[in-house]
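During the second half of the funding period, the structural biology subgroup turned its attention to how the target accommodates small molecules. The most pressing case was manganese (II) ion, which had performed well in the primary screen but for which no bound structure existed. We therefore specified the complex as follows and requested a full 3D prediction, including the ligand pose.
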Amino acid sequence: MPTRKKAVPASAPARVWKRDNAWNRLEASEREAVEAYCRDYVAFLSAAKTEREAYDLAVADLRARGFVDLEDLEREGGRLRAGLKVYRGCRGKTLMAAVIGRRPLEDGLHIVGGHTDAPRLDAKPVPLYQDGGVALLDTHYYGGIKKYQWVALPLALHGVVIRQDGSRLAICIGEAADDPVFAITDILPHLGKDQAAKTMAEGITGEGLNVLLGSLPAAAAADDPEVKDKVKLGILRLLEERYGMVEEDFASAELEVVPAGPARELGLDRSMLLGYGHDDRICAYAGLRALGDLEGTPEHTAVVLLCDKEEIGSVGATGMDSVFFENTVAEFLALARPRGGDLALRRCLERSRMLSADVNALHDPNYPEVSSPNNMAQINAGVVVAKYTGARGKSGSSDASAEFMAEVRRVFNEAGVVWQTGELGKVDGGGGGTIAMFLARYGMDVVDCGVGLFSMHAPWEVAGKLDAYMAYKGYRAFLAHTRR
Ligand code: MN
Ligand code: MN
């Protein structure tokens, strides 16, 4: 007797699943929500041009929403309880914020983790010098930049100077309408024959990224033959008069040269956003807003991580490869009742789920040669879920499990989040990584999920408004979701 075939469950008729621009599928009320969200994001991005500025704005926003500093809670003998909102910072740069859930911490966290540092030019410790009758600022670039993109555009100077006595001077020059700006000069095309013959990596060099600061000699020293570098002296006098700063103070400063001016709408239809540092403040802001906008008490503790140093490998005390996150979870467990020890910490980390909230690359019709068109994200087709990143055969990727991909897919579909898959360009075209692997090593489920960009790492990056909003909507659904 032949065995009878097992019945195949009836399924929906086959249909093509394809990514496309979702704008016209949104309800009018949701389109308004997209616009309102993007207005807030543009204001944040325009004001948060460094990791410190992003941190300060994030903490102010959290405090306004009732989050308390974990140190204050501890000092006052407080305890973690369901519904409590807390945050803990690291050196004014890295931040972890949480809404405590109903279940014990040991059952794991729902985490959205992004980064707030962005590619830029950092002033060297001895940056100020005079050459050819002008004063210049010597820089060392930070992160993966294409150097030729940083010449001949308006630049601003942001950062802090810590004086010997510990007093702190905040610097922000080049953003107000009547502020001066700075620039790095380029060779005129008339004399650019040799430069044009070089590769794009060599046409502008790292040591050539010197920022034009001034050209006036110091007035008092104008006729003094003993004084050399009169223009540099003029700049030093200005720094002393305006900021009470001396040249040696540069040694204990973090001054970042960034594109000057606010983020703004892009396109005749205003459907996109042009801004400096979308990577990764577009995801960091979405996570922060998602956590702040959570309604009620989530089942699992909801966490947002805003990290520094992602662009240089997540190293250092404020990078994701430090123990700040682990230490903060240990602090949480010490304030929980019953108090959790090391095993509870390990279990909490291993049972956590995370969206590594970082940007991805969009299919760019200008550069089809680096694309994998069916697999790269398209603008305004939704937040991008990327199973893996890496380079040369997924090297350096944490590669999310199919099971976790299914969970994220379910959560997003049930919440009406417009999402798409993504892949960072064609195979062997290059590659990149995120903070995903630093969390995955705890044994937790992690997947990359963020906004697709054009011109990633350029002084002005491009993002779609719908995508920015869907990152927020997706993160909020993920933080609040109930596991099955
Ligand atoms: Mn990034
Ligand atoms: Mn990046």
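Two results from this model are relevant to the next phase. The chain has a mean pLDDT of 95. Residues 279, 311, 457 surround manganese (II) ion (ligand 2) (CB under 6 Å).
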